[in-house]
Amino acid sequence: MIELAIRVLALYMPLLLVLLVVMLRRPAREERTAAMLATVWNLPFLLVVHVAARSAGWWTISVHGGGHLLGMPIELLGGWMLFWGALPILLAPRVPLVLIVAAAAGFDLWAMPRCAPVVSLGPNWVIGEGLALAICLVPAQLFARWTRDRRHLAARALLQTAFAAATLWLMPTLVFHHGGGGSWRVLLAYDRRWLQIALQLVLLAGVPGASAVQEFVERGQGTPIPFDPPRRLVTTGIYAYIANPMQLSAALTLFAWGALLQNIWVAAGGVMTLIYGAGFAAWDEERDLVARFGDRWRAYRREVHDWWPRWRPHIDPATPPALLYVAFTCGECSETGAWIQRQQPRGVRIVPAEQHPTRDLWRMTYAAADGTEAQGIAAFARALEHMHLGWAFAGMIMRLPLIRPCVQLLVDVSGGGPRHIARTCPPPTPTAMPTPTQLPAQPQAQAQTLR
Description:
The chain is mainly α. The protein has three domains: about 1-150, no CATH class; about 185-215 and about 220-315, no CATH class; about 320-445, no CATH class. It has helices at about 1-25, 30-55, 75-85, 85-90, 95-110, 125-150, 155-175, 190-205, 205-220, 245-260, 265-295, 295-305, 330-340, 375-385, 390-400, 405-415; strands at about 60, 70, 70-75, 120, 320-325, 350, 365, 375. A four-stranded mixed sheet has the order 6-5-7-8, with helices on one face. Strands 1-4 form a two-stranded antiparallel ribbon. Strands 2-3 form a two-stranded antiparallel sheet. Strand 7 and strand 8 form a beta hairpin. The longest helix is centred in the middle third of the chain and has 30 residues, at about 265-295.
């Protein structure tokens, strides 16, 4: 009887509080979206904490009957998700986060010892509580607040990517634990070198999706979540080659992940992704994007397909070409510019860095008509995306947040670091890399590599 009461209260108390706040406050659409995202964030990460707590002896949960996920009763999981997800952002939307965390920690310190016999606490259970606050409550509330206020766009997208990555642990774990067969121990049976190669292939399958998220942030000023979409039509980067890179990437990743784990149910997640993408997602996307972008969207979709990529990029004819500024007074740089020119890139013009219209440059610079700018290796990677799918894929990898600074560091230590290139000529109407006689002689100190 006590167990039943605890399980019922754990779910219905936060649920009733959320419903009451919604009825009294009538939150705006942005707040409802934020509350939903904060709640969903907690699903995989609370289960991560639960599994870690059971392994470390921080606490154990004993249940008899009823639904559960990985040994956690559905009622406790759902209530915890609401307590740390929707309730704070709806009940106290402007209260400083540190007070929210202090209140949640204080409540748990009081409540969890009183949840026996359902919850049995170990001597170091407060460590698990601290971990839960750090990876569940705090990110969930930051995610909610940033989404509601449309702040910290890159951080919002990073949290969305972290959530997607967490599902690659959660989905197989649920399959293994709930009758789908298999185990994580299958990875230990592989030869180490083969396992490293296979894991890299899984990561490569995720590159188009990660690059698409990055493109939404940098060019579209939005995220993949339908309630927080890009404000501008994105037809650049990976979207110049394929219209559904995220769904295709998710499907390929699940296929590869299922094959590596030797589990058909994990691989079947890729099939469900394709079905979802070709069904509801396609219908909803078409309706929304036609309403927002009209003929531009229709023209784009006539040229770019859902699942089969183009070899050469589609360029929006209504968009002026991007400019790639390369230091012409540097021999190595001009050779790089000439190589790019020989690849016949679409939608980009190469301009001497010395002819930048407003300032001196220190690195190769990519400037798009929408105001997007990239420098150094990121600019070179952007240029690769204008060539063909093979080079574009390499460019997408180079621009990923963790990879770009590493590649840039390698270029810098190899002699391609920043150099001052003075602006000496009026801006031209560029068509191709000019010859040396088209620029006045430069001091030797200024004729340096710009990468």
